[in-house]
Fold these 4 entries.
Entry 1:
Amino acid sequence: MNIESYKTDVTTKEEASSIVVLLQFIISDCIMNFDLENSDRILRIETNRDIKDMVYRVFNKQGFYCQKL
């Protein structure tokens, strides 16, 4: 498993939960969590495949920013 990290502009637990629900619907074989305490509000995803484009699509459709670190 690889861990991908994304810098985001998600600020609340509710926003983070809704993003995770959408991502898990699309990428069901991954483990993911937000670190909202970090100043970059990091989303970490454990995966075995390239999911960057799918992550960007979900964030953009929901009106949020993310950048792979």
Note: Residues 38 and 60 are 21 Å apart (CA to CA).
Entry 2:
Amino acid sequence: MNKLSTSSPLATSMYDTVVNQLSQTMESLGMAPDMRRILAVTNNEIIVHFPVKMDDGRIEIFKGYRVQHNNILGPYKGGLRYHPTLEINDAKALAMWMTWKTSLAGLPYGGAKGGIQIDPRKYSIGELERITRRYTYALGDNIGPDLDIPAPDVNTNEQTMAWIADTYMSTKSPLERSNFKHVVTGKPVGCGGLAGRDRATGFGVYLCLKLLFKSWGEELAGKRFIVQGFGNVGYWASHFLINDGALLVGVQDAHATLVNEQGIEVEDLLEHSKPRLNSIKGFEGAQEIDSENFFSLGCDILIPAALGNQITAENASLIKANVIAEGANGPTDKEGEKLLLARNAVIIPDILCNSGGVIGSYFEWLQNRNGEIWSIDEVMQKIEKKISTAFIDVQGVAKEKDVDYRTAAYCLALTRIETAYKHRGIFP
């Protein structure tokens, strides 16, 4: 089916996808089998069960995860997601992608991921706060500003990060607490957050598209695009693309699929979705169609910005877009990618396309460590420089080796990690 899928089988397939990508790249690079043995496994897999008192007085038990894949380049870094289908293989795959992503972006980080197996829509704000704080306490010293730095992901936000920071800091002595503010990134600006962090991922998606079309001698003005997922990434990517003259003609989330050939007003759609728990259903500025027809919409650009493995062998042949910008992590599976590449579609891979978020997180981390406060203009310039450098590097390798952008991105990321292992060796 072509509808936005949230079923649990994604967990295993996402892990299979990332391991397959790793194996293919390492084989093409001729890397030593020892490197594959190291990178194909995670360093630590943490599962916690913890009780929380609900508003009605009953006790509910929750299951949380934190997977730490590799830290050869620096502290573990990666988001926390709240989703009912989250499982350990899900977190393992996402943590591995974070290792490649931080390496490609040239950041001094490794990869991690985690979260709670929960549907946050079913809980009150007070319950979510208690769940978040109890999860943080359960993780204990498995996270820390120089060990493992969480950030927002699916269904988490700056408020979630503020609760985590406050809980973690409260476990430290009063004299030390201010030294642990950067235990998480993606915090509200008022408690150590970075101006512009909210739009960093979506801005990165937009910037990669702008750089791609510029390299072809084209502009974004007049390009038609569709977006799967209207969360933080989907909204901000659309916002920047529209400001550059592109036309949003289709949007899909878990509740509805909307189409307007004349263009969907993204700010109006945002205002519609806010009071409806971010659902786009019922928006009057577009026509609602069957979800199965989303990928077959006529457009130049497709931005999958929802969950993993949405583009598969079942629907890839329906896609009209010639450019796919992966705003989500792992939205394209192996067979779906084969079909797209066979017809010369260009896929800007997730570890490049959505790296704006972790790049923004890096600058927030630096800002907290150094006791500085940067303006939003300074921040956006820093993010643009990092992403532009990574994009140009990937495009250069793609041309030099005559490979697709994902293979080129993996070549760069894995080579940097291999170099670090060669220099440091294996202890003892």
Note: The longest helix spans residues 376-401.
Entry 3:
Amino acid sequence: MIDVILKKGKEKAALQHHPWMFSGAIDRVKGEPANGEVVTVRAADKEFLAYGYYNAQSRVAVRLLEWDESKVIDKSWYQERLQKAIAARQHVLQSGETNTCRLVFSEADFLPGLIVDKYADFLSLQVLSAGMETIKADIIDILREELQPLGIFDKSDANARTHENLEATQGLLWGEMPPEFIEVKENNILYHINIAEGQKSGFYCDQRDNRRILAEYASGKQVLDCFSYSGGFTLNSLSLGAAHVTSVDSSALALETLQHNVVLNGFDPAKQESIQSDVNKQLRIFKEEGKKFDIIILDPPKYAPSRSALDRAARAYKDLNRMGMLLLESGGLMATFSCSGAVDIDTFKQIIAWAALDAGKEVQILKQFNQPEDHPVRISFSEGEYLKGLLIRVL
């Protein structure tokens, strides 16, 4: 196995079991490893630190896998890791109220660059690192053996692949082609999921707990669900008695799927309206029309893909939340989220404070939202804590 030798004093992150080793920490590489090849990472004094995937074309030059020198990184090693990850999700699925969740969450499950989502009897796979790409066939074999799915679909079209010098891929990997709509259940609410054409892996299961929590406030309320996608917050609100929900999204496919989901669950279509529009533009239209809502949900896409985009993202989050505050009835509630890993919760709270100041509103924080247990955060990898949110009351 090829050795990657670190510069003196650069071993701290590896010793603390952080899974990323940046190229600037490397002194030299003994040999010429292929991108995705497993290498041995050593300190300047040649002491063993970890095994990891090497990629000379990525800023994260090594993605660390294993800190026990006696272990062998072979198919059995991957099978053990996958078995542990899958077993840890059984609590999410055991009640029968939910049959969709994230089974594997990349670095959080010690499998950097691998995401596996379960949608009823189908699996959606994202391979986002060169190392995982090299052993994709083994991963598929293990998933077949452990889960017996009807089909496994590749959704490896994320921007992260470009950083690993990988092309986007999508298509059937094994088994049956998923139907246009897969029927899944989350919190006892039914959804039609379009894996092939849907965003990310097909569905945002990271908001499962937060949808249920927020719905408890919805009875008899006028709700505005922004960036509604296929209707997670909309459907949960209707299930617990919202008077009316307005759902706004720029995607026609997402809103078409949402309409299917409203009918699928037997909700009154008259209590829900879908608007295809840019959210920021639509909020300004609502302001001009003098519209007000009791509850507003703001769940935008990732505004800060990296720390270099943080200032621009902060301005975008501030303006979005300011507009939301101006559309709330006095004492109304707003659930506001950021899925940008570069925006930590303290920064997000400061952004909300700036938005409140610009809107001329007083704000109380009622709850703090997090990602659910199938999206765990490794204590040595705080970057995995990407989803944060606040439930606020605007006075």
Note: Residues 16 and 380 are 7 Å apart (CA to CA).
Entry 4:
Amino acid sequence: MKRIITTAAALLMGSNLAFAGEAIEGNWKTASGETAVIGPCGGAFCVTLKTGKHAGKQIGKLSGKGNSYSGEITDPANDKTYSGSGTVSGNSLNMKGCVLKVLCKSQTWTRL
């Protein structure tokens, strides 16, 4: 009986940990088919490519909570950095990068 209670407590504690993170955290499939990981770093959330030509490269840093985040996004192909934002809706992440907040480009990423 004691073993069952211990196992149940461990499962409950583990499930609480799964829900402790922000909505943006996790692995995402980018619009170009690469995998990116978003995780906490220095009070914000860093976006780092895991696969593809630019694997290992940090391409963004966003701050926020809930479903809305903002910060900077870098295009890994040309190393240009833009004002960026991300909005999470279910298993989708709408990433947007803008120049002067007027010229914007968006992509939708899917949670893996």
Note: The chain is about 15% helix and 55% strand.
